[in-house]
Amino acid sequence: MSERILAELIDGALSPQQQPQLFATYNPAGGALLGLAPAADAARVAAAVAAARNAFDDGRWSGLPAAHRADLLLSLADQLEANLDALSRAETADTGMLLSMTSQGHLPRAIAHCRYFAAECQRLAGECFAMDNAYWQIVQREPLGVVAILAPWNAPLAVATINLAAALAMGNTVVLKSSERAPFTLSLLAELIAALDFPAGVVNIIHGPGSPTGQALARNPQLDGLCFVGGADAARDIAAQPVSAFRRTLYELGGKSPTIVLADADLDAAVDGAMLAAFASNGEVCTAGSRLLLQQDIKDAFLDRFVARVRRLRIGDPCDPLSEIGPMIDEAHLWTIERHLETARQEGGRLLCGGLRPKDLDGSYLQPAVLDGVAPQMSLFRQEVFGPVVAVTSFRTAEQAVALANASDYGLAATVWCADAAKGLRLARQLRTGVVAVNSPVIRDVRAPFGGRGASGLGRVGGRWSMEQYSELKTFSLPLDGYALPRLGAGGTG
């Protein structure tokens, strides 16, 4: 049987006009070949951008009534919902994320994104100001134009759709690039969009590695906006390009998020929260609570409970409903995590549990690891691992906890656990993060802004902040009835 060729979508056509170079994508839970994806070269990238440019400039999308754009987004949501099981299984096969997570979290979120922004584009309202009884000033939002979205591999559909749906709702046209590590579900998205009534060129979906595909896309001068979801180093490369200076750019990057547990916290609840923060989505998520900051008085008691729970985590087939940790995205990423662990041990970190490959599993699996004695100068305290690895550091006072939490280039998320909610809120207000939770996991609502500070990114997505991200403001001036213009140069006759 021939290998499956994953779909790309350029100017309304699913199949490449010429035989492209192909790359393979594999299931990390055992290594089975899932399919071959077309790697877009510079010419294919240029064709995708040109298609989006033409579709924007001739108004075939931005010129449609908002209700029409909303109907198409709702149709896309309906198709995602109708294919939820197949898409969830495809994303699990491609990423190693638990099927319970993709089917109950990632895919429902993708559907919600399309429906939310379908409604949001019909709620857009301008403002009007009467100026000295002479002029009306009318302010409205307009689309940017052509937007590129570079999606990540850990939750490709959910992250892609919060940006895609907002950009489309606002009237932009889009070139969406999948990660070379997980192109499967975005190729299925291409097939769904091609079967709907989106005008040709409005949505273009391509695949390929960061170099050359991602670089060619990011450097294209025809883009009016760009969203990059990934690592800080790649974002710096994009930002250094001359074309980046004068276009709207959104960076959703990494994190080294702290979970802070104060001595008066409910330890059982705090352990539950720390487990969820560290190990949901295999720890391969930007908001992962990978730094565990424990007040000295309760450190031992907390770690006894926490490490015992970590050792009991069920590692296995992500399609097994009993599994709690699936495989890492691929062998290369697993090797990177193992190098982080080795460096941490060399620098003085004490491995309390995990860090080994399970002998009874075939695939890119890793036992979740907890390391104690991680000081601020150590690599594991500062560098994002993007896996099921927790660095433990102790503190004596709340002021020390704040200093440790803020001793990071990242500033995405944090959680605080304590009995006194007012004290927790005071501490939370001192944290340099975009998102913070008190006695709760970090929660994302599509209506609220999400994003980070520092090396965690630039800009916000969610709710009206997404609509602002993918639009420009325009101010119109109109004279009021009866207002007479001054007649310069009329010789006093006016």
TrEMBL record:
Aldehyde dehydrogenase domain span: 18-475
A GO molecular function held by the record: oxidoreductase activity, acting on the aldehyde or oxo group of donors, NAD or NADP as acceptor
Keywords assigned: Oxidoreductase
InterPro entries, A to Z: Ald_DH/histidinol_DH, Ald_DH_C, Ald_DH_CS_CYS, Ald_DH_N, Aldehyde_DH_dom
Classification via Pfam families: Aldedh
Similarity comment: family membership: Belongs to the aldehyde dehydrogenase family.
Name listed for the protein in its UniProt record: Aldehyde dehydrogenase domain-containing protein
